[in-house]
Amino acid sequence: MGTVLLLATAASREGGFGFNFDILETNLINLVIIIAVLFYFGRDFLGNILN
């Protein structure tokens, strides 16, 4: 993991790619909410189908 982070920082300095650690900008909160809702409702839905 350290090597990947080192390569990402080196590439971002040169204008390549890099990691975006800003939670609001990457929509991480929205993704967590959507995945949690899918797991919560999907569990019941899938359980009913399998019975």
Number of strands: 0
Determine the fraction of residues in helical runs and give it as a percent range.
Answer: 55-70%
List low-pLDDT spans.
none
- What would you report as the Rg, rounded to the nearest angstrom? 18 Å
| Percentage of β-strand residues | under 5%
Our measurement of the CA-to-CA distance between the termini, rounded to an integer number of angstroms, reads 42 Å
- Structural class by SSE content: mainly alpha
Q: Determine the mean pLDDT.
A: 80
Pattern of helices and strands = HH
Report the major sheet: none
Output the number of helix runs: 2
Shape: elongated
Brief descriptors of the model:
2 helices, mainly alpha, elongated, 69% helix, 51 residues, single chain
Walk me through what this model shows.
The protein has a domain at 21-51. The protein is elongated and about 55 Å long. The protein has helices at residues 2-13, 28-50. The chain has two helices and no strands. The protein is mostly helical and 51 residues long.
In short, what is this structure?
The protein is mostly helical. The protein is built from two helices and no strands.
Write the layout of secondary structure elements.
Elements: H1 2-13, H2 28-50
